[in-house]
User: Which sequence fits this backbone?
């Protein structure tokens, strides 16, 4: 056996670069100001990755023409250090970003102090250099601690000591989940219509709790999915916590079309009933409940019961976890599903006009081309391949990138009413 992996040294980051830059200004601070835009204070629905990417891209475009240095911190805060003579264009940037988040209390003036802006702070370095330097050191130290924690977690994950979760650890995880605020672990990923030569247009947003981030935060030396049966139980607990968060949160995602992946058994829990009570009858038609294919066919009686409960209340159903191998066994209409998620594979790009491609296209057409979502699209080749199958709905990291770029150009979002019309 070799030596265990050593924790990585802190890597260069925006926090470290900010501290280094501020330290260099010790003897040249006159006439300089720092602008700190507090995007981390925005509410959760405004701190989605795509919104933050648009904000930081706008910031980067602006500061290229200014004499100074900009930094985007890990918590999404933006810091610019430059000259006081550039305050006017910086104010224009602040107003533009504030307009993006105008419905958020964190984007305006605090009600307590009329002269205090909760969205941004201006620091005159001629007078407050020492305070700003002390803050920059705190930020860099916090990032150093975070990097070491992540490096240790990665070393544990890669090493032989990372073992599957056992029942005792499952109990500890359940106790943690019962008390922890999991809102920071909720991720949102759009399902988009991608037409030829058109920017993607979101019709749904999938909400899910990141298991990888949960493991890194709570049990970095444990493989949460290593024991299949214990992990299945854990996913049921996560279902209930997600539903509880959505039931009591004022997150604006509840007003828009979204999809959540649930275990079949979760539909019979009090948490689902409580969640259902918070959803208006019209909004239910824009919400899609996803069931994993293996979960559904593994206990067909339970699935059929859950399907009837969900459909009676007006929700739509998606069968997740479909690939080119099991697709021939999936009959969307007999399962009573509105959508099917077909997982993209890199090998699809090499199918050409082969029998595998023709079989896959036939299965898509049998399910209904408007009813199939090509998911996990991590490569650009996924979109033209999906189009060759007749698919227009896509999801995945590559789609996220396309959507972010389209937002910068002012692309809009399809309304929930349009979702109902397209799916009916």
Assistant:
């Amino acid at each position: 056996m070799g030596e265990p992996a050593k924790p990585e040294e802190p890597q260069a980051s925006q926090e470290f670069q900010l501290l280094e830059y501020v330290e260099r200004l010790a003897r040249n601070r006159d006439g300089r100001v720092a602008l700190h835009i507090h995007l981390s204070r925005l509410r959760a629905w405004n701190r989605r990755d795509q919104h933050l990417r648009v904000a930081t891209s706008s910031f980067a475009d602006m500061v290229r023409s200014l004499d100074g240095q900009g930094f985007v911190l890990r918590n999404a805060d933006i810091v610019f250090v430059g000259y006081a003579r550039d305050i006017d264009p910086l104010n224009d940037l602040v107003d533009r970003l504030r307009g993006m988040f105008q419905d958020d209390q964190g984007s305006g003036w605090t009600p307590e102090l009329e002269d205090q802006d909760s969205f941004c702070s201006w620091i005159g370095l001629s007078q407050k250099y020492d305070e700003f330097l002390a803050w920059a050191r705190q930020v860099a130290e916090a990032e150093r601690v975070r990097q070491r924690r992540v490096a240790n977690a990665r070393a544990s994950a890669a090493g032989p000591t990372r073992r599957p979760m056992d029942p005792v650890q499952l109990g500890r995880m359940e106790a943690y989940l019962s008390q922890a605020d999991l809102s920071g672990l909720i991720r949102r990923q759009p399902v988009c219509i991608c037409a030829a030569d058109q920017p993607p247009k979101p019709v749904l947003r999938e909400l899910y709790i990141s298991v990888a981030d949960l493991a890194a935060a709570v049990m970095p030396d444990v493989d949460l999915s290593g024991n299949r049966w214990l992990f299945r139980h854990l996913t049921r607990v996560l279902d209930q916590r997600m539903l509880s968060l959505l039931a009591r949160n004022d997150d604006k995602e509840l007003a828009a079309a979204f999809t959540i992946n649930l275990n079949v058994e979760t539909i019979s829990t009090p948490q689902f009933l409580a969640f259902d009570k918070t959803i208006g009858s019209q909004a239910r038609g824009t919400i899609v409940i996803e069931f994993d294919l293996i979960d559904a066919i593994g206990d067909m009686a339970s699935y059929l019961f859950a399907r009837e409960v969900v459909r009676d209340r007006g929700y739509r159903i998606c069968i997740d976890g479909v690939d080119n191998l099991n697709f021939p066994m999936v009959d969307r209409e007999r399962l009573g599903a509105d959508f099917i998620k077909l997982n993209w594979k890199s090998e699809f790009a090499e199918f050409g006009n082969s029998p595998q491609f023709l079989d896959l296209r036939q299965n898509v057409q049998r399910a209904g081309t408007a009813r199939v979502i090509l998911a996990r699209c991590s490569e650009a080749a996924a979109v033209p391949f999906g189009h060759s199958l007749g698919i227009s709905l896509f999801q995945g990291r590559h789609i996220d990138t396309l959507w972010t770029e389209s937002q910068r150009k002012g692309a809009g979002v399809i309304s929930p009413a349009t979702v109902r019309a397209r799916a009916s």
